[in-house]
Design goal:
mainly beta; eight-stranded antiparallel β-sheet; three-stranded antiparallel β-sheet; 1 helix; globular; Pnp Oxidase, Chain A
Length: about 260
C-alpha cells in the first residue's frame, strides 16, 4: 500500500553529471567520463556539558564537503589541474604540421573551432583565410581569432565584413604543433593550490541541477590499478576533492552552492 504520493516529480533526480575542476568558475575544465560520482557534506557538532541538563549542542565546526568519483580518463593535463600545482607538467612537441584549405562555414558572429590545436594550447600560427571565391580576408576586419578553454583556435566572422558574407564557406591555412608525449613529475612540493569543483546534471529538458564547491583541494594521492588485459573495465583512478570554507565569501555562502532548475 502506498503511504503517500509524489509531491514534485521534477525533484526526482536521474542520471550522473559532468565533473569540472578549475582555478575559478570561469576556467573550469571538463574531466570527462567518470563513474560513481558522490557529493558529501560533513561537520562536527560542538557540544558543552551542563551540570543539570546533560550535553547541550551549541553549533558545528569543521564544516567540509567532498566530491569524489572514479575517473575513466587518465589525462595528465587534467591531473595537473586537479592536483593544484603539486606537480610539474610538460609536453614533448612534434614537428609542425601544415594545414591547407580547411573548410568552415561562418554563421553570424559565432565562433567555429579549427580542426587541429597546438599541443600547448596556444594559437595556431600562419593563419590565412580566403572566402569561397578565394578572395583573401583580413584579420580584425573580416574575421577575428580566439583560443577557447580547451586550447582550440577559433574563428568568427565580423558582422560588417565585406569579404565574408553570413553563412559563407571559408578556407583556412595554418600550421600547428602536436605533442608526442606528456609528462607529470611529482615530489618535493608541499603546497596545493585551491580549486573550484562543480558537478552538473542535465535532464532531458535541458534543465540543470549542479553543485559547486568554491574552495577544494585533492584529498588523496593517486592510485592507478591496472586491470587484466582481457578485462572490460579501464584503469580508473579514484578522485576525492575536499572543500573547506572560503572565508572571503559571505557567511552562509562559503562552502558550496546547490543550483536547481529541475525541481522548481
Amino acid at each position: 500500500m502506498a503511504q503517500t504520493t509524489v509531491q514534485n516529480s521534477n525533484a526526482i533526480r536521474f542520471g550522473s553529471g559532468k565533473l569540472e575542476i578549475g582555478t575559478s568558475i570561469g576556467s573550469l575544465v571538463n574531466i570527462g567520463a567518470i563513474r560513481n560520482a558522490v557529493f558529501k557534506e560533513e561537520w562536527e557538532d560542538v557540544e558543552v556539558k551542563s551540570d543539570n541538563a546533560g550535553i547541550v549542542k551549541v553549533g558545528i565546526k569543521e564544516h567540509v564537503a567532498y566530491i569524489e568519483c572514479d575517473m575513466m580518463e587518465v589525462n595528465l593535463e587534467n591531473l595537473n589541474t586537479i592536483r593544484g600545482d603539486l606537480d610539474a607538467y610538460s609536453t614533448v612537441a612534434e614537428t609542425p604540421v601544415s594545414v591547407t584549405s580547411e573548410t568552415h562555414t561562418l554563421e553570424g558572429t559565432d565562433f567555429t573551432r579549427l580542426d587541429h590545436r597546438n599541443g600547448d594550447g596556444a594559437e595556431v600560427s600562419g593563419i590565412v583565410v580566403t572566402d569561397s571565391s578565394d578572395d583573401p580576408a583580413v584579420r580584425n576586419i573580416d574575421y577575428v581569432i580566439a583560443v577557447d578553454t580547451e586550447g582550440y583556435t577559433c574563428i568568427a566572422r565580423i558582422s560588417d565584413s565585406i569579404v565574408i558574407s553570413d553563412g559563407e564557406g571559408i578556407k583556412v591555412d595554418y600550421s600547428y604543433i602536436p605533442i608526442s608525449a606528456a609528462t607529470l613529475t611529482s615530489g618535493g612540493k608541499t603546497s596545493i593550490s585551491n580549486r573550484v569543483v562543480r558537478i552538473t546534471n542535465t535532464n532531458e529538458n535541458d534543465k540543470t541541477f549542479r553543485i559547486t564547491i568554491y574552495k577544494a583541494t585533492v584529498n588523496e594521492g593517486q592510485n592507478i590499478e591496472f586491470p587484466a588485459d582481457d578485462g572490460d573495465d579501464p584503469a580508473m583512478p579514484h578522485l576525492k576533492m575536499k572543500g573547506v570554507l572560503d572565508v572571503s565569501r559571505t557567511a552562509g555562502d562559503q562552502l558550496f552552492e546547490i543550483y536547481d532548475e529541475q525541481g522548481v
